[in-house]
Every structure is written in C-alpha cells, then in structure tokens.
Amino acid sequence: MKFRYCFLSALGGGLLAALLVVGLGHRGAENLIFPVDGRVTERFLADPPVPIDQPLPALPAAAVDLRLAARRATPTVVHVDARVEGRDRATVKALFGREESSGTLGGEGSGVIYSADGYIVTNYHVVQAADNITVTTADRRRYPAEIVGTEPKTDLAVLKIAAENLPFLELADSDAAEPGQWVLAVGSPLGLTSTVTAGIVSAKGRNLSLLRDPDAIESFIQTDAAVNPGNSGGPLVDAEGRLLGINTAIASRTGRFQGYSFAIPSDLVKRIVDDIIEYGSYRRAIMGVEISTLTAADLQRLGLVDRSEGVVVDAIFPGGAAEAGGLLVNDLIVEVNGRPIRDLPELTEIIGRARPGDRLTLTVIRENKSREVTIDLLPADG
C-alpha cells in the first residue's frame, strides 16, 4: 500500500511570496493508492481549484461539540473477550495473536449493542474459532455470549446475550456520509474500555483487499479517528450519536494507528445483521459476473471515449442473472438504479445490500453507446 500526499499552499503578499507545507487535508487523503484485484487504482477529487483571490468561507464561531454523541454511544459499546480451548495452540495463536500467563488462548475486541433484547454486532475476526465468549457492558456487567451467525466475507458477526432493555443506537444513513464530517470511534483499544476518539470521514468506498475471499464485500468508510487493536467490532458514530459503521481495520506499518482507520458502512451492516438475526445466516444475492474497476488499459482496449470511471464486466456466468438480463462481457457499468458507479467497491456494496429477487436497472456503455439493462438478482445458493 502506498501513500502519496500533496501539501501545497500559496501565500501571497505585496513584497513576499512563500510556500507553506500544511498537514493532511481533504484532498491529500483522497490520493491513496490501493491494489484492487491486482490492479493499481488512483482516485482524485475532481473539484476545480479555488481561485487564490477568492475569500474562504467563514468558520462557525463555536467548535464542534461531540459530548452528546459520546454520551449516547458509550453505554451501547461492549468489550468482547473470546477464549479458545482444546485447539492446536500454534493455529489459535495465529488467529488471535494472544496468550495469557494462564496458558489460555484467545482474543479481545469491541462490539455494539444492536437491539434492546441483547443482539450485539462485532467483527468476525474478533470471535473467529472462539469456544467461550464473554461480553462486558459499559456498566461492567458480564454476560456469556453465543454466536448467532457470522459472515466472514464482510467480517461481521452477531452475538446474543441474555439481557433486556439494553441501550442501543439509531442507525445513520451511511450513503449520506460525506468526507469532512465529524465522527467518533468508540471501543476498547489496547484493553482500555470505553475509549472515545474523534476524527472526520476521510473517504468512502475503500477496498483494501483485506478479506481473502474472491467475492468478499469491501467498501469501507475511511476516517482519521484513532483506532487500535481492541477497537475492532466497535461503532463508528456520527456527530448526532448514530451508528455509521463498524470499525474493522487500520492502515499501518507498525500494528498501531498511523492516521487511517476503516469501518463497514451501517447500511451494509443492517442488511447482513438483520438476515443473520432472522435466518441465522446472510442470504446473499448475486449477479453472476466477474467485474473489475475500469483501468487505463481498459480504456485503450475498449476504445472508450470520455470515460474515466465505472466497472468493467470481465466474464458472464452461464445461467446467472446477468446472462438472463442481457449483460455482455466488456460492458462498462456506470450507474445502478440511477446511482453513479465509480469503481468496484461501490458496485459490490450495492449488490451486497440487495436481496435475492431484487431488480436492478444498470446503465452500461457498450461500443460507446449508453443503454439500460435490467437484472433480477438470484440467491447465491441457487
């Protein structure tokens, strides 16, 4: 993973001109480069530069106050302690990375109460392979927890404890989240329970190639709120104290926070968690295609004109929804149900949130002509 930053600000005066290097800004955070399915992709903001003689908008007099959001979120966050018994020690240490002085193997992380009757959301990697799970609430009550269901391809898990009338968070609309808005990360980093950190949304739709499954769903919200080991599975909340995502990963060369953290968006969390609670597993819908983000090589190969974003159809599976709907190899998908599609993570998230039987209207570019293709999604196990 490479990081490239541009820090340039011109400072004019009647008799003096100087260059001032400034800290990470909105535009700098957009210049991350990530490998996606072996391809290097780069995305820049397309906003035109602000003229140097144009005055900047005035900032509000009062600073942002996040105390109410913290008061709402903190009681809903739990500490998750996972223990493993009777397993091969080398294998379990590789999974959890922790061995206590007692010789017990396990891992720990965070979670967030999803409903008043004891359902809790956390990361799959927090409870993976665990035999015994203990949940500690913000008021220090301890409960044994059972795993209701997991979805490794999104790194989500749902736990259940025997409790009632628990506090829980209203869900935010993660589609409406914007770079620059304030967020809080709440959890138990490094064993420090009920820790609150603040930052802003840095970007949306990040794919880190973190999950190993070829059909994994990665479309993370990127923030600069400090997240460390132990935060995994805890909530990312907006300034109103609503659940915006589940903190999952950091970009780091040291194993500790270095400026960027990543959360599963709440709209995707709700879709998967509701299925797990109702059916015991995630009922996934599929299009029956192999797809990839548009590259410079694709532009040249397909002779595309005036196109720089979208998702290319690389293969069509026989008998799948895409074949039935008339999608073709080398079609460039640029919209789904009227929503612009810039890259692979955006499209995989939309499909991941859809249900089997849902109808999607795709706008595709075929031989430099725009057309619509209607697809009725099929169940993944169908």
From TrEMBL:
The keyword Nucleotide-binding does not apply. Keywords: Hydrolase, Protease. Gene3D superfamilies: 2.30.42.10, 2.40.10.120. Residues 288-368 form the PDZ domain. PROSITE patterns: PDZ. One of its GO terms (biological process) is proteolysis. It comes from the Bacteria. Pfam families: PDZ_2 (PF13180), Trypsin_2 (PF13365). This is PDZ domain-containing protein. InterPro entries: Chloro_Bact_Ser_Proteases, PDZ, PDZ_sf, Peptidase_S1_PA, Peptidase_S1C. The keyword Transmembrane helix does not apply. GO terms for molecular function: serine-type endopeptidase activity.
